UniProtKB/TrEMBL annotation:
Domain named G-protein coupled receptors family 1 profile: residues: 41-266
Stated name of the protein: Olfactory receptor
Gene3D superfamilies documented for this protein: Rhodopsin 7-helix transmembrane proteins
PROSITE patterns: G_PROTEIN_RECEP_F1_1, G_PROTEIN_RECEP_F1_2
Localization in the cell: Cell membrane
Family indicated by similarity: Belongs to the G-protein coupled receptor 1 family.
Protein's membrane topology: Multi-pass membrane protein
Role according to the record: Putative odorant or sperm cell receptor.
Organism: Gulo gulo (Wolverine)
Bilayer-spanning residue ranges: 26-48, 60-86, 92-120, 140-158, 178-202, 214-237, 249-268
């Protein structure tokens, strides 16, 4: 939550949790720990997916994009958040705020679209397994990734200038502004995709086949649930004072906690990634010993 005094190019005052100063030092360490986990976990995912030939398939190509996105997303706001939590200075310049707004909206919108792309990839893998390689060829995967990043950028270039043109005089407060279309439409597509996946899985006669098909989707379903569960709670619920206080903690969760949990979800529940981690560790060990 921000407020600004004097003219429209004054420094913004970041209120945040200033009404509860006893929380700020605790939140500093909590956020710092999650930020370190985010950096380490997502770098490991990117490294393993790029180094292991067995992971050079569409699912892990999109996972690398998600990991890179999470790294950039948290880095666009967490360092400033840590500074505000630790010290008495809680301001950000107009230019700094504008840059952060552009980047934050760009990456947030990109994640919405990228999760749709990953859902479509899982739909093709389960519902059209024999044609999967032909459909999800490298050129299409690259085009879909560019579409996700490009759509987020266009959304930010449209929404950010409109936001910055609002009158920020006196002591007006702004809690959040978001494009509802980029929340609801992707979620509907994702739910539709998994509805089709569920029908396809139920048609599989063997329990082992159903389990295998479902296991290819469960990690993505958990990531979608974490992201959309908190984002929709922040932006789609009716606004009141209680909701505004709750929104601050939910915003912390999807900007700080969720990006750190995504690598754990994809490694702990994924035998291929765990196998790739073991192979990378062995190669590193052997190269050091030799």
């Amino acid at each position: 939550m921000i407020t600004i005094c004097n003219d429209s190019h004054s420094d913004f005052i970041l209120l945040g949790f200033s009404e509860k100063p006893y929380l700020e030092k605790i939140l500093f360490w909590v956020v710092l720990i999650f930020y370190c986990l985010t950096i380490a976990g997502n770098l490991v995912i990117i490294l393993v997916s790029s180094k292991d030939p067995k992971l050079h398939i569409p699912m892990y190509f999109f996972l690398c994009n998600l990991s890179l996105l999470d790294l950039c997303f948290t880095s666009s706001c967490v360092p400033q958040m840590l500074v505000n939590f630790w010290g008495p200075k809680k301001t950000i310049s107009y230019i700094g705020c504008a840059i952060q707004l552009y980047v934050f909206l760009w990456l947030g919108a990109t994640e919405c679209v990228l999760l749709v792309v990953m859902a479509v990839d899982r739909y093709v893998a389960v519902c059209h397994p024999l044609q999967y390689t032909a459909i999800m060829h490298p050129k299409l995967c690259l085009e879909l990734a560019i579409l996700a990043w490009g759509t987020g950028l266009v959304q930010s270039l449209v929404q950010s200038p409109a936001t910055l043109q609002l009158p920020f005089c006196s002591h007006r407060k702004v809690d959040d502004i978001v494009c509802i279309i980029l929340l609801v439409v992707p979620l509907v597509i994702i739910l539709s995709s998994y509805g089709a996946v569920a029908k396809a899985v139920l048609k599989i006669k063997s329990a082992a086949g159903q389990k295998k098909a479902f296991s290819t989707c469960i990690s993505h379903i958990l990531v979608v649930s974490l992201f959309y569960g908190t984002v929709t709670a922040v932006y789609l619920q009716p606004k009141n004072r209680y909701a505004q206080e709750q929104d601050k903690f939910l915003t912390l969760f999807y900007t700080v906690a969720t990006p750190s949990l995504n690598p754990l979800i994809y490694t702990l529940r994924n035998k291929e990634v765990k196998g790739a981690l073991i192979r990378l560790g062995r190669r590193t060990w052997d190269s050091q010993n030799n």
